[in-house]
Design goal:
11-stranded mixed β-sheet; alpha/beta; Rossmann fold; 3 domains
Length: 590
């Protein structure tokens, strides 16, 4: 009896752990039903029969149980589905909106203050013969297109739902996976060139427009991500747009054969060309949603900010927008540290993909299944000078004053590099200088003198890399704008919290009014800070100047280039923490 009781306790532990795995993995409801049935049958049999059998029989019975549970897990794994445009079951449909390609309808948010139109095609699907070609105008459609769900996110590497939920739980302190209506995986496809629009409800006109480019190292990401949902901006009378674009090998593969077949001689920037095509579509059609095509601000975070910087130097985007907001990345330095590479290097990498896949021509690559292609690809996470979308090194375009943005608001976070080095970078006092030499060559000694290893070399390394990889690009971008006499405002986000804190992407929910998606991580002050930040951005989007009544003054960078606007426990001007580092990096970049 004592032994049987011990097995029952083990049974309860197994059942509890398995139930947690099912929930974290978002397995379907019917999987839970089969799981419950299997456990009940096993428990009854064990109590009545198996518990008295020989150890070998008992052992085999447990093996059988685990095998059954594994089968239940696999067959009830969450299916792929498109993400709903609003978090309301059976939302009310909007009136018909007419764009160049046809009629469409969207859905209202819960309090009916915002209309959302998700999954509007802005280009033809880049599949088959259109893979690795410039985006083409979308086809017209007949009838009324129902835009109540986001299109699939673009093809990308995929972690298990269990892994994603564990990341949400551990890093974000987020329990949103505990949702009976969320038992699915976001659909993914190569056919993903679709835009999403959030607008104030009802008849509106001449609203400023934010055109947002999502991040993800140009390899991953989705426009459905709730941290930059546009509802809060629409409630402020601003039309908000985001969209999907080609990523990884589909977006940034370069090949001489592709350049030869292009009438524009371009290759390697297909994702950027998608972004500009989406911007052009918005410029031509946003008035139908009440937006002002002559007052569009392009905005983005991380690789999205690098993309904004690229849009600012692309002649293809001239006249399509007025202002720019960049968060935590840029490519205006002489030799960008990430999301940008030399054209020759881009072409050299083609052999890596072809060798992995056993092909030798573009025609063979186009015939491959997208899932196979994305998994076999290398690190295709960089734009390049293709002579068309980006005609020359971005720094040269700024030096000639040929960039597109009339005004800039951009900046960086206090702990940008931490999320990139936490798992795979081992820094000690002994190898600290060597680690710096990998990135800064002969300037490593000077940087080490400025930032000595001390008692916490990993923290110092993260500080240096955050300053170089992120803050420096914004300082250079600001200096170019200053030299041109254009308005420029730079921030430094320092607010700590229980979520991503002030690490990379930590500012996102503040900038886009989405703290409520993870309320466990924020206090009343965080909501106040978010409102202040959005006030600044709204003023900038409307007028090109973030300042307004009741807000601490945000000086133009030109008034004092040593100052940035701190957005944290205090809101006010502060000395840029990396001024000394910038001087060294300027020399290293020459």
């Amino acid at each position: 009896m004592k032994k049987k009781k011990g097995y029952i306790i083990l049974f309860v532990i197994v059942a509890a752990l398995y139930a947690l795995i099912l929930e974290l993995s978002k397995n379907t409801v019917w999987g839970w039903g089969i799981f419950a049935a299997v456990m009940v049958v096993f428990l009854i049999l064990y109590i009545i029969k198996l518990g008295e059998k020989k150890p070998a029989v008992r052992f085999l019975s447990w093996i059988g149980l685990f095998a059954a549970l594994f089968i239940v897990y696999k067959v009830s794994y969450p299916p792929y589905a498109r993400v709903p445009a609003v978090g309301v079951r059976n939302p009310e449909q909007t009136d018909v909106v007419t764009v160049a390609q046809g009629d469409l309808t969207g859905v209202f948010n819960e309090d009916k203050t915002v209309e959302v139109y998700a999954g509007i095609p802005y280009a033809k699907p880049p599949v088959g013969e259109l893979r690795w070609k410039e985006p083409e105008e979308p086809d017209a459609w007949e009838g009324t297109l129902i835009c109540d769900r986001f299109a699939p996110k673009f093809m990308q590497g995929e972690k298990s739902t269990l892994w994603d939920s564990m990341v949400d739980l551990i890093i974000y302190n987020n329990f949103s996976w505990f949702d009976p209506y969320n038992n699915y995986r976001e659909a993914m496809s190569e056919d993903a060139l679709y835009a999403n629009v959030w607008k104030p409800a009802g008849a509106v006109s001449d609203c400023p427009v934010i055109f947002y480019v999502h991040g993800g190292s140009l390899q991953t990401g989705s426009p459905s991500y709730d941290q930059y949902n546009g509802e809060a901006w629409a409630k402020r009378g601003i039309v908000f747009v985001d969209f999907g674009y080609r990523l990884n090998v589909f977006g940034y593969y370069a090949d001489e054969a592709l350049a030869a077949e292009s009438e524009n001689g371009t290759t390697g920037n297909y994702g950027l060309l998608d972004q500009i095509a989406a911007l052009r579509w918005v410029h031509e059609n946003i008035a139908a949603f009440g937006g002002d095509p002559e007052n569009i601000t392009v905005a983005g975070e991380s690789a999205g900010s690098s993309s904004v910087n690229a849009i600012c130097v692309s002649p293809l985007a001239k006249g399509l927008f007025k202002r720019a907001v960049g968060e935590s990345s840029g490519i205006a330095v002489n030799h960008p540290y990430h999301t940008f590479r030399d054209y020759a290097e881009a072409l050299e990498m083609k052999s890596e993909v072809q060798e992995q896949l056993g092909v030798s021509t573009v025609e063979e690559l186009r015939k491959l299944d997208a899932k196979k292609l994305v998994l076999a690809a290398g690190d295709y996470n960089s734009m390049t000078v293709d002579g068309y979308a980006i005609p020359e090194q971005p720094a040269y375009i700024y030096q000639k004053g040929e960039n597109n943005e009339e005004a800039l608001l951009s900046g960086f976070n206090a702990s940008e590099a931490y999320v990139f080095t936490i798992l795979d970078t081992k820094v000690t006092k002994d190898n600290y200088l060597e680690m710096l030499e990998e990135h800064f060559d002969e300037y490593a000694d000077e940087i080490a003198a400025l930032y000595p290893a001390g008692e916490d070399p990993k923290a110092q390394y993260n500080t240096v890399m955050g300053g170089a990889w992120f803050a420096y690009s914004h300082n250079v971008w600001s200096r170019y704008m200053q030299a041109e006499g254009r308005p420029v405002y730079e921030y430094w986000f320092t607010r700590a919290n229980k979520g991503l804190s002030n690490n990379h992407a930590g500012e996102l929910p503040y900038f886009y009014g989405n703290l409520e998606t993870q309320p466990q991580n924020y206090t009343a002050y965080d909501y106040e800070l978010s409102e202040t930040i959005m006030d600044y951005i709204e003023n900038f989007v409307r007028t090109g100047d973030p300042n307004g009544e009741g807000l601490p003054e945000w000086q133009d960078f030109s008034a004092d280039p040593t100052k940035v606007m701190e957005l944290g426990d205090r809101v006010g001007l502060a000395t840029d923490p990396f001024l000394s580092l910038y001087g060294i990096l300027d020399e290293a970049q020459e």
